[in-house]
Amino acid sequence: MSASTHDSLRATAVADPTATTALRNLYFVRFGFAIVWAILVMAIAKSINPGAAALIIVYPLFDVAAAISDYRSSGSSRPKAPLYVNIALSLLTTIGLAVALASGIPNVLRVWGVWAITAGIVQLIVAILRWRLGGQLAMVLSGGISVLAGTAFFAMAGGANPSLSGVGGYAILGGIFFLISAIRLHVVIRKAAK
Fold this sequence. Notes:
Layout: H1 3-15, H2 17-44, H3 50-73, H4 80-100, H5 105-129, H6 137-157, H7 165-193
């Protein structure tokens, strides 16, 4: 990292250390949730059963809660419009998934695919707007991979044996990207405190 980049990151973190710390903490929580959720989905979502249905609905609702928390705590680094869009997309996805659950795994995968593509685009935008905070390269990669994964979910939906295990893998990968960003933000916060 160049001296000017380090100074820029330090200035941003110093200007709003509470928001940077809150974002780091949110990323750690999102990592933990994604891993636990994915393990549960892979364990019990062999078919659409009550447990699988609850898990499928909980994931976008958690995303809504995370976006609201992000909005409330991000201060000057708050990208307002994209966070509003993310909240709306996740709420619409919750409704879409609730409807799709009644018609089978292929339709669940299609709804999830649309969400992955659109949410990935929003995540790219938010990461670019927050670039100066640091720790956003992983979020850029995550957003791009989300778009590709959404396309893959459509392919899975039309396959011979569609399965919900793919959404578990998607959540694990997303969680890992949140962990990387959280660690990177932690480094920025520590350097800013020196």
